[in-house]
């Protein structure tokens, strides 16, 4: 089964609650949090996550694009995060971050940027619920997928069968079949879903 996670980064930020309502039949909501250091952009904080938590029952997949995610796990969990994903390239020790996420009651995920090999996850992968393969450079929406990242999906599915493998970046009706063929369990789709006239139909087509 393939899950679809619309990326809030592609939504109209002037009417976020309405936008989330449009994708209520998604499997989860992907929320990118950027600190302006790990990636050059800034995005939403825990107050927005908390406000949206009151508007939907969708699971929140909170993706921390931060240099020091350890300091923010508690506040995002309290705001409503169900899954907390951090980057293996961050400055904090991965084992400590995973332990803190699990202790908070959230499911733990790790993301790897395009330049990072799948092997970088190492032994920590066995403690993860989810692994995110970035198929664009993190920090900006609307980019084209780097198709040469897809072999990582296959490797990670084989190495860590207990974890769901998510593809994040450039997912659309053309690239989704390639992601699924590589073994992806979750597809993060931003522009493709939020710009669609019928988001539900778009999500169904992506998952087929």
Automatic annotation (TrEMBL):
Cofactor note (record): Binds 1 divalent metal cation per subunit.
UniProt keyword list = Carbohydrate metabolism, Cobalt, Isomerase, Manganese, Metal-binding, Zinc
Alphabetical list of InterPro entries matching this protein: Aldolase_TIM, Ribul_P_3_epim, Ribul_P_3_epim-like, RibuloseP-bd_barrel
What are this entry's molecular-function GO terms?
A: D-ribulose-phosphate 3-epimerase activity; metal ion binding
Enzyme Commission no: 5.1.3.1
Which CDD domains would you find in this protein's record? RPE
Binding-site list for substrate? 7, 63, 139-142, 168-170, 190-191
Output this protein's name: Ribulose-phosphate 3-epimerase
State the organism named in the record. Acutalibacter muris
The gene designation is: rpe
């Amino acid at each position: 089964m393939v899950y679809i996670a619309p990326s809030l980064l592609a939504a109209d930020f002037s009417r976020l609650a309405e936008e989330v309502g449009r994708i209520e039949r998604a499997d989860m909501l992907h929320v990118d949090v950027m600190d302006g250091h790990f990636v050059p952009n800034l995005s939403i904080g825990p107050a927005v996550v908390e406000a949206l938590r009151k508007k939907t029952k969708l699971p929140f997949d909170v993706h921390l694009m931060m240099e020091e995610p350890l300091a923010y796990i508690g506040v995002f969990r309290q705001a409503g995060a169900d899954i907390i994903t951090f980057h293996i390239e961050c400055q904090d020790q991965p084992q400590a971050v995973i332990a803190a996420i699990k202790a908070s009651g959230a499911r733990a995920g790790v993301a790897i940027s395009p330049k990072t090999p799948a092997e970088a996850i190492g032994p920590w992968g066995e403690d993860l619920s989810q692994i995110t393969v970035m198929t664009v450079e993190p920090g900006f929406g609307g980019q084209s997928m780097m198709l040469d990242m897809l072999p990582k999906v296959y490797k990670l599915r084989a190495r860590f069968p207990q974890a769901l493998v998510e593809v994040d970046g450039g997912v659309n009706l053309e690239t989704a079949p390639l992601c699924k063929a590589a073994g992806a369990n979750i597809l993060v789709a931003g522009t493709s879903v939020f710009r669609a006239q019928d988001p539900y139909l778009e999500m169904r087509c992506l998952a087929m």
